[in-house]
Amino acid sequence: MNHSPGTRPSQLGGLDCPIPNAVVPVAGLGTRLLPATKSQPKEMLPVARKPIVQYVVEELARSGVRNLLFVTGRGKAAIENHFDPDLALRESLGKAGKEELLAALDFQELGLNILYTRQSVQRGLGDAILQGEAFAAGQPVIVALGDSIIGIEGNSTACRRMAEVFLAHDAAVVVAVEEVPEDHVSFYGIVEPGGVGDTFAIRSLVEKPAAKDAPSRLAVSGRYVFFPGIFEIIRRLRPDKRGEIQITDAIRMVAESGGSVLGVRLRPDETRYDIGNLPSYFETFIEFALADPDHGPRVRRYLRRVLARSRGGA
Ligand code: G1P
């Protein structure tokens, strides 16, 4: 379904996800996006009409997730405010007859139960995920990073597909992967595939390798499904040189001890928009603005003009 910004959240809901619980880590400091993130969470930066994290939440709703736990941290209150109903705003939009906007802001219609917990000390992504242990309550859980959007406007049900693969193969871990250019390999967790195809076994993983040492160009793309045993493994990990507990290390331990770790390739229309660094944030903003049903054509004309001008000036 094509989700335009005017689409009501209730129109997103589809099939229920066979794994209904998702943890969304949003505790990272966003230092790669300074100064934009000095006093606001990177997940609240706008991409065209919406803050990044709203696309992530809508994507999860589209996959049929029902319960969502944000793992927040210092300075992240704006995320909680964003998803809370604002009665005064509702009333004034209602009086002004802005029905479309009212509907677009009604996050309760997503049918999600949104919870919050906090990572009190910055100890890396693995530790942030560990904060979701009680929420997972001994069941498999999805993890969706709050600074990555899958598909234009989050139009993807990759998490549901991953949950189905997880259950069908009785896997321990499923990760979404995407092939990246060689000069991006050192930004991501990179997998060593043990097979080919849309779903394949992963033999091992390495966090942010130099391109020359990387086992492939297949990058872990911000969406995971974990068996409940992952939390015990995270707890046993030692922090890396930067004092961070890496989820990649936990997944590698599972793979190398014979557990079933599977990669699910994102489809061609499921581009992964990584907002964690400035160049890809700029690119994502432009692409989403171009896709805007009301304003996209005007942005396209404007870009053409600007590009023609800058070529002339070069
Ligand atoms: C994290 C993970 C990395 C993964 C990436 C996806 O890195 O550690 O394995 O590929 O997310 O965005 P971060 O971007 O938090 O440095």
Write the layout of secondary structure elements.
Blueprint: E1 21-25, E2 46-47, E3 50-51, H1 52-62, E4 67-72, H2 77-83, H3 87-95, H4 99-104, E5 113-118, H5 124-130, H6 133-136, E6 141-144, E7 148-150, H7 158-168, E8 173-179, E9 189-193, E10 199-207, E11 218-226, H8 230-236, H9 247-256, E12 261-265, E13 272-274, H10 278-290, H11 296-313
Parallel strand pairs: 1-4, 1-6, 4-5, 8-12
Antiparallel strand pairs: 2-3, 6-11, 7-13, 8-11, 9-10, 10-12
The chain binds 1-O-phosphono-alpha-D-glucopyranose.
What does this structure look like?
By secondary structure, the chain is of the alpha/beta class. The protein folds into two domains: 2-276, Spore Coat Polysaccharide Biosynthesis Protein SpsA, Chain A, CATH 3.90.550; 277-314, no CATH class. The chain has eleven helices and 13 strands. The chain has helices at residues 52-62, 77-83, 87-95, 99-104, 124-130, 133-136, 158-168, 230-236, 247-256, 278-290, 296-313; strands at residues 21-25, 46-47, 50-51, 67-72, 113-118, 141-144, 148-150, 173-179, 189-193, 199-207, 218-226, 261-265, 272-274. Strands 5-4-1-6-11-8-12-10-9 form a nine-stranded mixed beta sheet, with helices on both faces. The chain has a two-stranded antiparallel sheet with strand order 2-3. A two-stranded antiparallel ribbon has the order 7-13. The radius of gyration is 20 Å and the shape is globular. It starts with 20 loop residues before the first strand and ends with a helix. 42% of the residues are buried. Bound molecules: 1-O-phosphono-alpha-D-glucopyranose. 1-O-phosphono-alpha-D-glucopyranose is lined by residues 125, 145, 148, 188-189, 207, 219-222, 246, 248, 274, 276.
